[in-house]
Structures are given as C-alpha cells and as structure tokens.
From TrEMBL:
The chain crosses the membrane at residues 28-50, 79-102, 141-159, 171-189. GO terms for biological process: lipid biosynthetic process. One of its GO terms (molecular function) is iron ion binding. Residues 178-300 form the Fatty acid hydroxylase domain. GO terms for cellular component: membrane. The lineage of its organism: Eukaryota, Metazoa, Chordata, Craniata, Vertebrata. The keyword Transmembrane applies. This is Fatty acid hydroxylase domain-containing protein. It is found in: Membrane. The keyword Protease does not apply. Keywords: Membrane, Transmembrane, Transmembrane helix. It comes from Denticeps clupeoides.
Amino acid sequence: MTPQQTAVSQVDHQYRNQGGLWDSVRKAAFIIGSGLFFLVAFRNSLMWHLQSFWGASGDFWQTQWSKLLLLFQGKEASLFFVGTMLVPTGMFWLFNGIFMLADTTGKPSFITRYRIQLDKNNPVDSAHLHHAIKIVLRNQLFYSAPMVFVTYMIMQATGDPISPQLPHFHWVLLELSICGLLEEILFYYSHRLFHHPAIYKHVHKIHHEWTAPVGVVALYAHPLEHVLSNMLPALVGPVLLRSHLSTTCLWFTLALLVTTISHCGYHLPFLPSPEFHDFHHLKFNQCYGVLGVLDRLHGTDEKFRETKAYERHTLLLSMTPLTQSIPDEPKKSQ
C-alpha cells in the first residue's frame, strides 16, 4: 500500500469511527426520548389505574406524612436530611451488613453459593474490607452529607420539596424513571472519563483495587469520583424535577441498593443481575453504564456479550446458581 493510500485509509477509518460515535449518540437520544414519550403518554391511563389500586395505601401514607410534618414543624431542613441522607444510608449499611457477614464468615450458605467469581473473596480479606469501610464512611460523612445540604438549599429556592401533599403514585413512577435515565447518561460518560489513562491512575484506580467487588465497594472511591460519578448523577434528577422529599428518599434508597447489588459479587434469585458490573471490575474496559443501554450503543459491551457471564446476565428465577446451570468453559490445559 502506497503512503497516499495509507493516509486515505487512516482518514476513512477516523471518519467511520466519528460517524459511528455520532450515530450512537443519535440512537441514544432517540431511545431515551422515546422512553420519556412513552412514560408521558401512559401517565394518565395505566398509571391512573395503578394510583386507584393503591388509593387506600396512599391515604395511609398521607396520614403518616402529615404526622411527620407536625413532628418536624419548623425543622424542615432536618426532615430533609433524615429523608435523603439518614434513611438511604441506613438501608445501605443494613443491606451491606448482610453481605459482609457472608463475605467474612462464608455463612449463610444460601448467599455464598451464588458467588459470581468462585475463586475470589472466599473469605474476603479482612484488612482490605476494613480499609474500604473507612473510605466509604469518609465519603458519606465529608462529601455526601454536604452535597445533600446544598441540594436542599437549591430545591428549597426553586420549589417546595416538603409539600404537605404527597405526590400521586403515577407521578412518582414517572420521576423515578426519569431519574434512572438521567443517572444512566451522567454515570456512563463520567465513568468512561475516569477510565481515561491520564485520570484513571490518579482517581478511578482506587475503586478498581477490587477486581472481585463486594457490596460496600459501591461507594469505595476517590473523593472526586464520589462527587462527580456517584453523587451527582443521582442528585440531578430530583433537583431538575423539583421532586417531593418522599420521592427523593425513595430514589436515593433504590439507587444505593441497586449499586450495592451490582457490586455484591452474588447473583441471587429474584434480584437484579450483577453480572454486568462484576464483569467491568474483572476486565476494566467493558460495561461502563448502569442499565447497559449506552454500552450497547457505543459497543462497550462487545467482549462481555461473547462470554458466559452475558448468558448469566438475567433475572434468576430458580434456586440453582447460574454458575452451575451455565458454567464457564473448562480451561485448556497447558
């Protein structure tokens, strides 16, 4: 091939790469936009029926909310902190306490038999785990808490996050869906940014010390990453939507539980599959997102889709571990 042909080939390859990226962005915008349109279209039909079904429950929670407002009368900032920080954080540590018991003792076997990487964390290194817990507590105390306070100031200035009236059921579902989509976009691109070689070794490498993650590692990160990639993607939705405290509390709790499951290292029955993010910790340069939509559009899950882990990336509806029903290929002898 002549030098001129080589130059033309390189330009053509670069153009196709840029075109592929732009095409992926347009596809992502189309899919996300279509999803939002679908949610809005069904807001006053299917969601209305769900709201009617839960009407009695809604009356019950409205009564409890009114009592809570009376209890915290004049202390709205404290109530916001309880709902957005203490409740989600308490659920995070309760959930992780169960996983840490399994990680350190190997019991109960009901959990440990569903381990994804069978040869890792069996049991987990105690010193490594204690260090991770310290970093997580630091992030929650010195970074999450101040960000929640700033969030309250913003939401108080732009709306009424502690309104006496609870939001309707269908509106809560719509807001949770939008928050999930926004988190997917912001987390995917910030996560890929932290994998840039110039940034990775200084920031994100800390999180990837765990090639076989455990639940508490979900928040084990450099402060910069914790702020920009863990907290910010979750905060943007409620701020933009001017969400009610009840919705924000529910969203933060769900987000923390989902990321815990993604890092826990166990593919348990009837819980979301953690295979996707577990593979990311194992291979580093695959599976950057939460939902996997942008990974598919950008091709950052191609290697993952060629593995047994991809076959196991499904909701487990039986009691048989997927490592048994879909085992890895036997290693070739040297």
